[in-house]
Design a protein that fits this description.
2 domains; 73% helix
C-alpha cells in the first residue's frame, strides 16, 4: 500500500513538472513572437511607405532641400566606407586579442582585471565612445572629422563584442583537440592556426555579425565626432581628380551615414521627407541583412571545409 502511494506521489510530481515545462515553453514562444511580430510590423510599415520611393535616382542623387529630388548617394557610400574601416580595424584586433587571452595569457590577477574590463566595456553607452574618439582621434591624433575617425570609433565600440565572442568560441573547443595536436608535435601557434581557429570560426563570425550589425545603425558616436547631416559630394576616389588624389585620401574626407541621413529627414515636417526616411531605413535594413547573409554564407563554407 505504501509503494502505491509513493508511485502516485511520483506521478503527481512528474505531471506537475510537465505542466510547468509546457507553461514555460508557451511563455517562451509568446515572448519570441512579441519581438518577431513587433519587428515585422515595423518593417512592413516601413516597406509600404518606402518601397514606392525606391528608384534609380534615389540611389544616385545627393540629398536635396526638395524631397522629390533627394537621394542617399553620399549616405550609403559613407556607410559602406565606414563599415569597411570598422571591420578592417576591429576584426583582426578583436580576434587576436581573444586568442591571446584564451591561449597565451598567463592566468594571474592582471589578466583577470583585463577580462573584467573587457566584459564591462561591452555594456558602455555608445556616446561615451564618441566622446573618447572626439578627444583621441579627432584632436589628439589629428584625423579630423573623417571616415577614418568614424571607422576607428565604431571599431572601439564593437571590439569588446568581438573579443568576448572569440573567447567563448575558443572555450567551446574540446581540450582533447589541443592535446592531440600537442601529442603530434605541433607548437602552440600551429595548434591555434590549424585547429582552434578553424573549429571556432562559426562562433567568431557570429560575434562579428552581431558587432557589425550594431555598428551600422549607430548614430550618437558618429554625430559626436562631427559627421555631416547634409553633404552633396563623395570622398575622393584614389588617383581621381586634378591633381590626382592619393590612395588613402578618402580616409580623411568628410562623410555622412545612413542613420544620420534618416535623422535629418525625420526631423523635417514635410510628409515627403518622412517617406524618404522610410525608404532609407528599408535600404539600411537590407544592407544589414546582406552583410549578415554574406557572413553566414562564409561561416557555412568554413564549417563545411573543416576536417575533424
Amino acid at each position: 500500500m505504501l509503494e502505491s502511494q509513493d508511485l502516485q506521489a511520483i506521478r503527481a510530481l512528474i505531471a506537475k513538472a510537465k505542466r510547468w515545462d509546457a507553461f514555460f515553453g508557451v511563455l517562451g514562444i509568446l515572448s519570441l513572437m512579441v519581438g518577431v511580430l513587433t519587428f515585422s510590423a515595423l518593417f512592413v510599415d516601413m516597406a509600404i511607405q518606402g518601397i514606392p520611393r525606391l528608384d534609380g535616382n534615389f540611389f544616385i542623387n545627393f540629398p536635396s532641400r526638395r524631397a522629390e529630388n533627394a537621394g542617399i548617394l553620399s549616405a550609403w557610400v559613407g556607410t559602406v566606407l565606414v563599415m569597411f574601416v570598422t571591420a578592417l580595424a576591429a576584426v583582426p584586433l578583436g580576434v587576436a586579442a581573444g586568442v591571446y587571452l584564451e591561449e597565451y595569457a598567463p592566468k594571474n590577477w592582471m589578466t583577470d582585471i583585463i577580462e573584467i574590463n573587457i566584459t564591462n566595456l561591452a555594456g558602455v553607452p555608445s556616446i561615451v565612445y564618441g566622446l573618447l574618439a572626439l578627444g583621441l582621434f579627432v584632436y589628439q591624433f589629428g584625423f579630423g572629422q573623417s571616415i577614418l575617425s568614424a571607422g576607428l570609433t565604431l571599431a572601439l565600440l564593437i571590439l569588446p563584442v568581438v573579443i568576448v565572442a572569440t573567447r567563448e568560441s575558443i572555450r567551446a573547443i574540446p581540450q582533447m583537440i589541443r592535446e592531440g595536436s600537442y601529442a603530434c608535435g605541433a607548437t602552440n601557434w600551429q595548434t591555434v592556426r590549424d585547429h582552434i581557429l578553424p573549429y571556432s570560426s562559426a562562433g567568431i563570425l557570429t560575434g562579428i555579425i552581431i558587432g557589425m550589425a550594431r555598428a551600422i545603425g549607430e548614430t550618437a558616436p558618429i554625430i559626436t565626432i562631427g559627421a555631416l547631416t547634409f553633404i552633396a559630394f563623395l570622398p575622393n576616389a584614389p588617383f581621381a581628380g586634378d591633381p590626382p588624389a592619393g590612395l588613402f585620401d578618402w580616409l580623411f574626407s568628410p562623410f555622412t551615414v545612413m542613420p544620420i541621413q534618416m535623422f535629418n529627414w525625420t526631423s523635417r515636417p514635410e510628409a515627403a521627407f518622412q517617406v524618404n526616411a522610410a525608404a532609407a531605413g528599408f535600404v539600411l535594413v537590407l544592407m544589414t541583412l546582406l552583410m549578415n547573409g554574406a557572413a553566414i554564407w562564409l561561416r557555412y563554407h568554413l564549417r563545411k571545409n573543416i576536417k575533424w
